[in-house]
Amino acid sequence: MKAKKLFFKECHLAGRQYHDVDEVWEDLHVGTLLELVRDLDNRYDNDAVAVVLNKGIDEQTGEREEYLLGYIPSNENEEIAQLLEMGWKDIFECRISKINPDAHYENQIRLTIRIKRNTSSR
Fold this sequence. Notes:
Elements: E1 5-12, H1 21-24, E2 33-38, E3 49-57, E4 64-71, H2 78-85, E5 92-99, E6 109-116
Antiparallel strand pairs: 1-6, 2-3, 2-5, 3-4, 5-6
């Protein structure tokens, strides 16, 4: 039996203190699914990959509830950025693998990124 997902990378969530983590802290748990989004307008990092919590559609406003949590660290994002730019957004699964509220900001949230099997090529 072939694996459905392949481990790709584990890293911390960079820059979390500057973004929306505190607004949604209670919604974040080990296993929470997050989205990786290429940030082409980031003036600090040419390969910036944002980590976003998508809570779906707000019933009152009808708008998507998305929260920017932080970024993939700049020393670990080049391959992901290139794949996202080439249209491979759905290839990645990013989940929280560790939460430690007592750690330094940069070490509070760890992410595990896996590559999902392409089921359309069977």
